Amino acid sequence: MINFYKTIDSKIERIDEHENGCWINITLPTAAEKAWITDTLGIPFEFLKASLDEEESSHIEVEGKMVLIIIDVPFAEKFDDNIMYTTMPIGIVMTPDNIVTISTRDNPIIREFADGLIKNVQTELRTRFVFQILLRMATHYLLHLKQIDKRSTQLEKQLRRSMRNKELIHLLDLEKSLVYFQTSIKSNELTLEKITKSKAIKLYEEDQELLEDVMIEIKQAIEMSNIYLSILSGTMDAFASVISNNLNIVMKVLTSITILMAIPTMVFSFYGMNIGAEFGSLPGGRTVVIPLLVAFGITAISAIFLKIKGMFK
To answer: What pTM was estimated for this model as a whole?
Structure first.
C-alpha cells in the first residue's frame, strides 16, 4: 500500500498522487507497487529489499543521490492477557525530491505522522523530517520501557502471593523484550553516530540540534534498558527461589497434617486387633471412651510439638 502526504498550511494532508516535496509511506508493497517504486522513484531494488527484510539491522547506505537509513522501532503486540514487546525495521529513503518510508506493516510512529499528531512537520524539509521520525522512535522506546517497568512491578506483586509459573513466564517475556530493545537501541545509536560523521546528509544548524536531542534520548533509553534488564534478571532469580520455598512450606504443613491424621488411625488399629486372652488385652478395650481419649491425647501432644518446631509456618 502506498500513501502520499504533504504539508499544506502547516498541516500534513493526504494527497492523491506523487509530487515533489511530499512524503511517500509504503507498507508491504505488492509486486506492481515495487515496480513503480524502482521505476518512478528511482529507488534501488537493494534499498527496497533491505527495508522489507524483518531481520535487517540498523545501518545507513548511500548510492548516488539516494540515502537509505534503516532503523529499528519498538512494536507492541497483545497475545491473550499478555503483551509482547519487539522491534521491527523501517527503511527511510532520502531522494533528491522526497522522503520515502518503507515497512512491512503499519506501526504507531508512522501513524502519528500520518494522522497529523506531530506538530511543526514540513515534508519538504527532508533532513529535518527524518530527524523528527528518529526522535519519535527514541521517544517510543522510552515509553515502552516505562510500560515494561510498570508491568514487571505488577507481576512482582502477583508473585508475592502466587506459586504459579504463569507470572514467571510473563517476566521471562519482558526480559526477552528488554534484550530485543537493548540490541536495537545500540544498533540505532551506531547508525546515528554514522549520520553525524557522514557527509551524505547535509546538516543545518537546526538539524544538528535536533540530532543531538535524538542522541540524548537514545543514550537515555540505553541506560534505562540496562537498569531494567539488570533488575528484572535479579527479580526472576529471587522469585524463582521464593516460589520454591513456598512450595516447601506447603509440603511441610501437609506432612504435619498427615502425621496428625495418622495418629488416631494407628490408635484405633491397635484397639481393633483381635488379641487373644493369653496375651492379655489393652486397657479400656471394651469401651470406646478410652481409645478416643488416648488418640486425642497423643494427637494433641504431637500437634503442640510440631507447632513448637515451626512446622505450621
So the answer is: 0.74
d(CA 140, CA 117): 14
Q: How far apart are CA 298 and CA 303, in angstroms?
A: 9
Alpha-carbon span 110 to 106, nearest angstrom: 7
**Residue 180, C-alpha cell as written in the block:** 530485543
In whole angstroms, give the CA distance from residue 230 to residue 207: 35
Indicate the pairing of strand 99-103 with strand 23-27: parallel
Is residue 99 within 8 Å of 24, Cβ to Cβ?
A: yes
Cβ pair 112, 10 in contact under 8 A: no
CA distance 14 to 221: 32
Nearest C-alpha neighbor of 178 from the set 223, 217, 130: 223
- For 252-311, what is each residue's pLDDT tens digit? 788 878 887 887 777 777 666 655 444 445 565 556 666 677 777 877 887 777 777 776
Q: Which residues pair with 26 in a beta bridge?
A: 2, 102
Measured CA to CA, the distance from residue 173 to residue 179 in angstroms comes to: 10
Residue 140, classified by CB atoms within 10 Å of its CB into exposed (0-12), middle (13-18) or buried (19+), is buried
* CA 21/CA 100 separation, integer angstroms: 11
What is the rounded CA–CA span in Å between residue 272 and residue 110? 83
- Rounded-to-integer distance, Cα 311 and Cα 313, Å: 6
* 289 C-beta neighbours (distance < 10 Å), count: 8
Q: How many CB atoms lie within 10 A of CB 281?
A: 12
Task: Tell me the residue type at 111.
Answer: R
Cross-strand partners of 101: 25, 92
Question: Helices (DSSP H) in 77-165: which residue ranges?
Answer: 108-114, 126-159
Are 101 and 60 in contact by the 8 Å Cβ rule? The answer is no
pLDDT at 206: 75
39: Cβ–Cβ under 8 A, 6 or more apart, which residues? none
